[in-house]
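Forwarding the complex inputs:
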Amino acid sequence: MNDDVVERAIKSSRDPQVFRALLASVKRNVGFLSKKPILMEVCGSHTWAISHTGIRELLKDEVELISGPGCPVCVTSPGEVAQMIELSYRPGVIVTSYGDMIRVPGRGGSLEASRAAGNHVEVVYSAMDAVTIAENNPEQQVAFLGIGFETTAPAAAVAVELAKARGLGNFTVYSAHKLMPPALRAILSLPDLNIDGLILPGHVSAVTGRKYFDFISDYAVPAVISGFEACDILYAILKLVKKIRARDFSVENAYPRAVRETGNTKAMAEISKVFRPSDAFWRGLGNIPLSGLELNTQYSSFDAKVRFGLPPVVEEPEPPGCSCAEVLSGRKTPRQCRLFGKACTPSNPVGPCMVSSEGSCRAHYVFGR
Amino acid sequence: MRCCNDDNMYGTHGYEAGNCGTRINHITGNNPPIGSGNARGNAGNPLRRRDGRVLLSHGDGGLLTRRLVEDVFLKHLGNAFTGQMDDSARLPLPPGAEIAYTTDSFVVDPIFFPGGDIGKLSVLGTLNDLWVSGALPLYLSAGFIIEEGLGFAELEAIVRSMGEALCSCGVSLVAADTKVVPRGKGDKIYINTSGVGVIPPERKMQRKALPGDRVIVSGTIGEHGLSIMALRTNVDPGSLTSDCGPVGPAVDELFRSGVQVHMMRDPTRGGLASVMKEVAELSACDLLIRESQIPVRPESQELLDLLGLDALYLPCEGRVVAFVGPGPIPEGWSEIGEVRDGSGNVILETKYGGHRRLGLLEGAPLPRIC
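Prediction (whole assembly, two chains):
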């Protein structure tokens, strides 16, 4: 697609007139269903956009929109958070992290509290920035906290390769990366889960391609890949509502300006060059086999878990009273948590869903009426 | 160019109006005998070369301190009137006048940004606070905390732009202080300024919004915070510059228009949303704000999308939000919403017709943005 076409598509995806037409169409089509459909998105950017644009409120009588395990900071398990915090207390270690992560509470406080206690925690905007910090601080060990899904893993992989090419012996990645399909399988297999459709993540799909999600049709739940503008999301919701009615369980791409059938093969190759699937703990879903990424043997000298001799991650309890686990697996809405808005607020978060701008609790708190 | 209060109603108080430039009554911390033992002309002195740097000993109150004051501060902030060196400035004020007094510290990182620098910001930030209180600014003080190693060229550029900002607003610098801290104990330069102004009777506001008021803003929002955040994240800000500037002219026009001004704020830290929330709570009213009417430059919108930031929470450094009664508003101001009976909520109607609550900026730190 050339730039002009994309430009036009983005413009129309923000056009309030297009939005109103789509909204009316969603409402009309929901009328054909026997009950109010429950749709789950599994992407923090969708969580944010659905609240930010007001879609949640505009469709409150027609569609229930819930969030699944799509916020990178939120799904990072308490055990992983505890190791990250512990790492920051090691002498001579600079921990580099994406911003939201440093405020997540865990055993031992938080990375933010660790920084205030005098440890070296740097917020970076990309894995490359962490490589630069390693180059500039040759006497220090620089550990980059790799979180997120198929979207962020390629950048971490490139950073590892770059560090290897430059012979940086002081750069490591603490990989807490997660893979979407095993988590979706786990969610779709939950006995107490009741969802009618899945809004699939546009960013992840841009990397993985549409076909990557074809397995969802085995679970007889309609799924549509969505973009992030207000009209993109409504369009995906409209498609889902129609598919629910037609009992059409194919995985559809409603974000063709960014997502192809096979995705970004270069980025996917980069992931499998540097990482291999490993068992991983997810907040809310527990241990899921082969749902995480660890560094391949040939890159193990860049693996923070190897370099610093960290023990395998174990299950850690959630903070007392925190319902993040239930919220992330779609079993509770944020407002059903008894801490929501009282003991747990963005200024004083108890769980990660209130920390991250992509967290479901935070979106409900900040944008709720 | 307007200089040194010469068209200010509370004008000159018997001071010599002087050239375009500012008056310094005293500079402390270093206590240099200004005007005596002038070291100017010593061009061979390595400490005065353009590539020179501020040393710890520039803050010891001795000869180097005097040179720093004379070669940098007095050069750009001093003028014909330097007065008797005193431990405090003595300021004449009109009898019975209501005084507005404010202080603010500036730690912005980076210290130079498109559209301004920490010097300009430190002058206008404080003067803007006076203007939105209904005051006509008269006097400013400045305190500098300089990290050892700051280049003289950078320091001079900062001080020069303070001089230019003061001059263009017709305000006098009447007190200043400089300290130097060891390398690593500060970050380049921090500036604190305090300002004094006088509130004329016709600019007294009731300082709360009333149901039925309109909410108006004096220009496009978010540019200061956005240009800083773009620099900090290594994103090319393109043609975007900070809105750092004096709000005096916009405020003057608003008062001249005759519209009843009930309250004004400048949406700096926390952005427009946080300021509106404060006003809503203070006034025990609700505000209904229409997103489609909030002025945001198209080039800002592109960067906002790229960086995932919300213009409503980014600081402006040259904008005013005002709560006004009926009547025509001056050109350049935009009506963005209205005040209703309520209990301190700010409700944003999105451009898609949905609604969401706007609260104070919470848990999304944007440190050292002003």
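The first strand of chain A starts at residue 38 and ends at 41.
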